[in-house]
# Entry
Amino acid sequence: MPQTIQGETISDFRSDTVTRPTPAMRRAMAEAVVGDDVLGDDPTVQELEALAAEAFGMEAGLFTPSGSMANLIAAKVHTRPGDEVLVEAFGHVYNNEAAGLGSVCGVLTRTLPSDRGLIDPDDVVRFARPEESLHSPRTALLVVENTHNFHGGRVVPAAHLRRLREVSRERGLALHLDGARIWNAIAAGGGSARDYGALADSLMFCFSKGLGAPIGSVLLGSAEFVARARRVRKTLGGGMRQVGVIAAAARVAFETGRERLAEDHANARALAEGVAEIPGALVDPAACETNILFLRTERGPESYPELQEALRAHGVWAIACGDLGVRFVTHRDVDRGDVERALAALREELPRLGRA
Ligand SMILES: Cc1ncc(COP(=O)(O)O)c(C=O)c1O
# Structure
């Protein structure tokens, strides 16, 4: 459904974070039973943490205001200052979390190449430094992003993650799964929640992306890990009081948002298939596995901001992302009608702006 922003009717493909709370979420927020979560007695958030942990077969969970904070807490618990973290070169924690790994955790990051978001297990072996070196940092952590945002929502299948898990264990590294969109990976057949949970020392997922909540993420792991994480969250100012008010909306998202992700994937695929036929587009619809599409053009990166602006005039909002293309993300608040509207706008603008 098109949204209204400042009086303008738009089809908003900028991100799956743009969804507005549903009436059911607003009702749940109004009626939430709350306590003081820092003092340990908000039942609504505690139930949500337990439900999320149970879904992945992990021992415990910690509600956080954002995915970035959950990733940062995980890195802080798994590392010491001066350690090194391995992360894929286009990884969100490396590129888009305001350098928290360096500034808050005091760790070095080493970026790994990948096959469109899939890290080669041999590269983990190659890039992890020998533990016993007097000279080098200790490589402590591997972060795996699933689905991979800047590789167009690429799914990391559980079978592939298992291999990464094996080599990281051999090298003594913890494995953190940045599963902001892990439910999209699950909906796309990458593996079950239990599969993924069994392959990570810690796992973060967002209620505020495809599941559709206004706020909130959760960090999962062993009871001991989560106890340490709770303390780090407090250090970062992420201890919240009557947080059941927002956890209640996140619970509605958790209970109602998962089964409809396949619809988002079908919409993204329809968009990809439609765009691929327009002159000027460089799009492989088969690579659109979940809810993210990067539209690249024959003319290349200089056309992306121009295309973004031209689409805006049609009420179609997407984001030019550097060299990566113009990003379209499908979610609960865009439907097939919005896809058709985007395609109509692209048929008009892309041949003019995108052809070499
Ligand atoms: C892969 C990935 N990880 C983490 C995050 C961070 O989530 P948040 O925006 O809630 O901080 C995002 C946000 O887009 C993301 O795409």
